[in-house]
Amino acid sequence: MAYKQIDISSVIDLKSHDGISEKIAQRQFDVIKKGFEYLSNAENNVIYIADEVGLGKTYIGLGIATLLKHASTKKGPYCDVMVVPKKNLQDKWLKELRNFGSHNYLTSSAGHLALLENDEIIKDRLRPIEDSEPFSILRMTSFSSLSSYRKGHREYLTNEVFGNNGFCREMLLRARDLKYFNKDFKTELLKLVACLLNAMSNRIDCLIVDEAHNYKHGLGVNASNRNIATMLLLGAGRDDKILSDFPELKDRMKSSLAKKVICLSATPKDRDIMEVKAQLDCLLKKHPLRKCTEREEVLNALPGILIRGNMEYFLEEQIYSRNQCRHEHRNGNVDLAEKAVQIELGNGFDSVFWQLLQFQSIRHLSQKPNASFEIGMLAGFESYQVDMDKKVAAQTDDDGRDVVQKEYEIVQHRNQKDSEDANIIREIVNSYRKNFGHQPPPHPKLSRLETEVTNQITNQQKSLIFVRRIATVDELVKRLILRYDRDIILNGALKFTGRYTKYESEDVGLMKKAFANSHDQERISHAVSSFAAFPQVVKWWRKLSSPAKSDLKDMINYCYLRGEADVSKVINMIISTKKPSRANLSTVLHALELASERYFEQIDLEDFTAAENEEEELRYDSFFKSYFTKRHKEGFLFKQKVYRENFFDLNIFLVMLSDPKLKDLAQKTAWRTDFSLASAERLTGKRFTVAQELFRNSLLQEDPKPIDGRRYHAKELKKQTFITELLLIHCKDELYSWVSKHSTVSMREFLIHFMALNALLISIFQNGSGLLPAFVANSTGKKINKELINLLVPTDAPFHFVFQEVRTILKDYNLIISVNFQHRDSQKILSQLNNMSPVVGASGQDKNRSTIATRFRMPGFPYVLVATDIFHEGEDLHTYCQQVYHYGIAWNPSGIEQRTGRVDRINSLSYRLLNSTGVRTFSNKVQVYYPYLSKSVEVNQVVKLLGHINTFVRDFNNIENSNNYDSTVGLTDQVTEDDIPKAIQERLHSKYDIEFFQG
Q1: Inter-axis angle of helices 893-900 and 938-956, to 10 degrees?
Q2: Nearest one of 613, 616, 614, 612 to 846, comparing CA atoms
Q3: N or C of the chain: less Cβ packing under 10 Å?
Q4: pTM of the entire structure?
């Protein structure tokens, strides 16, 4: 393929907004230019961009691909394909592809942008690659699921995958005769399907492989199905058995389906440089490393295909590398302090229990021949919860395959499935519960983390906590939510004193009482389920004429939480393991019958605009959020009111009227707008909504018919909603700055931005941190504007943090839009921010990972994200978080670096603080924690891991060394806290940065 000469600076611009530093944008431009010049040479077919985590490899890859397409002289369709690890990264790449097309590709046409709006760019299943589709985003997991022995799979492949193509139908029929669809031939079927996909596909002009290190194990004896399928589909190799059984394929298969390949990974090498060759072997038949058999040969060739840069800061007239702008807490502490305190075992019961557990675990592990354990494979280091509280039935993964319940998301060895101490913990904890009650014993490390993170939430500091075990996600989320509800809300924001005692209303009192009744929801839920199973209760329920939507357990829970005396008495008896008498049952059934009418009434209440069930249920949620669901009538009715009224809608007319440059336009537009449609509306809130819409439409009319709208606009258009009053009076400077920035574009663009801002602000009060104070203000029975402002604005106000969140959204609007909502679609924004919670968890069970990441990139809810390694690569979580806890440690140092890179990257909170202040201070740095209990066997694994991390960080910029990161920890190793390796403090240099590129 030939490429024409182009002026690159007239095609792409990497500094599309002020948030991108000049230095970073220039480096990205230089790498793109070098990569394009290299790949536009007909002899070169692959480049590897291996920049450190967070330097913008996605944009570099898109930049190179865009220039190749722009400069191509090819006649006819041009095909770009991206391959990414998982489904959530497909969403991310589509977002970035659209963003690059809209803001960085200067000559992007309307037709090009229209192509990017096609959601079918994301491929949920592998199909033959069509050159009629200019963009396709595939996921690696799809390559693993090409074969199945389920009934009907051949018909599915014939009709759905290959579109009933005659040749493919014939091959699949022969495969059936050769038993390829039998369980024992699953791998052979996968190979055949991959070969057929290659034969039926058009050539790929440019292939981008994100996180290419996933192919590091190559095509050896134990090669994964994913690697084999990728190799065959891309024509990087052939399979003799398949070609023997299906010789017709030989002439149809294409060698090196992709003409140009761009590999992206911050960690192309884990242990040995030969891993880079193994990756390319899966992607291309011919490449510069194909004939290399020795490490030295790869090392000699590498400068010709690989570019790796480090993130650097120019501060205090010096250049610092990324590691110098992190603070690594290697003393085992969890508190945010320069001189932090280790977590030590005291003399309390939790310490005694821990030591008993450790003793039993060591005794158990000592029976192994080598008396050792794998890093991160002892559950007791994380929590005492071995089994999941909530089992998810019939789970499927992103590719529709059944998922077996598992303890760990990612393990080093495929045969490792369970903690090595799981049975020990289960036995001891069950014994504890029998003797001391249902709750698990306190965990010294978990309790300290819980307390510290709660303190940070009080200051609205975000934390990203990585764990290994899925059960730990559930336990930590549950505990942190309870602490949030109890310490921050009940004993904090709702503990009104001084001039705020007037907010202790009857409705607030009822809410507090409901919380007191529900604080131990686990035991209550168990007791409710037990009571609902009583034969007398079941018989009574069957006789009751109940609506279809009703549920017996839900009704009992409803009555209990509302404090129905007789119901509460029986449930509390069951909780305390007492059996209710026949008289008790008779009384409580009578009480339930009396309460049934109210229960049936509330379940039939009209759903409000944002449906609660559109999204997967959260593991656990804050009581002070769930209070506004149907379970609690007072809270639910208020939330309906929030959606019905216009408290939180920003009045565009008043905003424009407040700006000297827009005032005249606002008045003239109001004068000429026909508001008769609005005045015809019966509901006040609806009249306001329609009036706003009519006014916005009128702003877009170039030559409207003159209409005297003075009488109406003076009445309804000037309605001072709460959010409008808050911004015009108390956020005056921030609002003026926002309007000044966004009123210089066309009116259509200004209105799009305005509605996006409106949606961001609405989400705070409808679904986020502002809903509770709005309820408190409304419960006074006075004007909500005045009371809510009083609860938010003064610095000593109980909900002042919500006011700070509003100001942050105004100040950081462009940043928030660029990282989360490039579409600027107000309805999509409201939908994505529909189910906000102060603490969230994420594991492979959660299919809405992109939405979770979007919410965590907001300045308010959620304050804490607890995640397994499912989030260790791909998603950016950096916008307002600068604290990473490696609570459950991974064995692999590259995995640890990938985790930390979720928040340590371009435009992160720390990045912005460092560059805006120009100095390195403790508070400006990314904070990285490795919590462990001192004087315990846990020290042994931390010593080994941190040593591996230092080796990985030092050697990676040189790459030459071959490292063996032993994951086995010996129980008899004599180590202490003094052996903990210190974090690397010297500046790091890359030998493979752009100035050393030889391609």
Answers
A1: 80
A2: 616
A3: N
A4: 0.84
101 and 199 inside one domain: yes
Same-domain pairing of 581 and 675: no
Contact 433, 440 (CB under 8 A): yes
Q: Give the Cα separation of 371 and 373 in Å (integer).
A: 7
Query: Within 498-581, where are the H helices?
Result: 506-518, 521-532, 535-543, 552-561, 565-575
Whole-angstrom CA distances from 478 to 14, 484, 736, 838 are 42, 10, 42, 11
**Do both 140 and 113 map to the same domain?**
yes
**Whether 270 and 392 share a structural domain:** no
**Which H helix or E strand runs over 320?**
strand 318-321
Give the residue numbers spanning the domain of 381.
349-488+848-979
- Alpha-carbon distance of 664 to 656, in angstroms, equals 9
Spatial separation of the C-alpha atoms in residues 148 and 210, rounded to whole Å: 26
- Indicate whether 612 belongs to any domain: no
Reported as a single tens digit per residue, the pLDDT across 184-193 is 888 999 999 9
Strand 864-867 versus strand 462-466 pairing type: parallel
Is 956 in contact with 269 (CB distance < 8 Å)?
yes
Which of 246, 229, 253, 241 has its CA nearest to residue 169? 246
Q: What residue type is assigned to position 858 of the chain? A: M
Rounded-to-integer distance, Cα 365 and Cα 381, Å: 15
- Give the pLDDT band of residue 235 (cuts 50, 70, 90): very high
Which is nearest to 525 in space by CA: 483, 477, 478? 478
Per-residue pLDDT tens over the stretch 464-495: 999 988 888 988 999 999 999 999 999 999 99
Residues 371 and 303 grouped into a single domain: no
Q: What is the pLDDT of residues 14-54, one digit of tens each?
A: 876 666 778 888 999 999 999 999 999 999 999 999 998 87
Look-up of token digits 């089994």: 387
Residue 433 pLDDT > 60? yes
Which residues make Cβ contacts (< 8 Å) with residue 573, sequence separation at least 6? 579, 580, 584
pLDDT (tens digit, 9 = 90+) per residue, 66-109?
A: 999 999 998 889 999 999 988 888 988 988 888 888 888 888 76
Question: Which has more pLDDT, 365 or 806?
Answer: 806
CA distance 208 to 30: 19
* Shared-domain flag, residues 564 and 667: no
Q: Beta strands 318-321 and 312-315: pairing type?
A: antiparallel
Q: Are 479 and 521 part of one and the same domain?
A: no
Report the candidate in 8, 21, 115 with the shortest Cα–Cα distance to residue 67.
8
* Domain termination residue (choose one: 689, 720, 751): 720
Distance CA 100, CA 65 (A): 11
311-325 CB burial, b ≥16 within 10 A, e <16 = bbbebeeeebbbbbb
Same domain, 483 and 534: no
Q: Give CA–CA dist 831/614, Å, rounded.
A: 9
Tell me if 288 is assigned to some domain.
yes
The answer to whether residue 832 sits within a structural domain is no
Q: Which residue has tokens 């396709």? A: 136
Identify whether 679 is part of a domain.
Answer: yes
Beta bridge partner(s), residue 373: 969
Model confidence pLDDT, tens digit, residues 247-287:
999 999 999 999 999 999 988 988 889 999 999 999 999 99
Q: How far is CA 470 from CA 593, 701, 809, 938, 983, in A?
A: 41, 55, 33, 20, 29
Q: How many domains does the chain divide into?
A: 4
> What is the dihedral angle through the alpha carbons of 58, 60, 64, 66, rounded to the nearest 10 degrees?
60
How far apart are alpha carbons 137 and 640 in whole angstroms? 40
Helix axes 521-532, 506-518, angle to 10 degrees: 80
Q: What SS3 state is found at 259?
A: strand
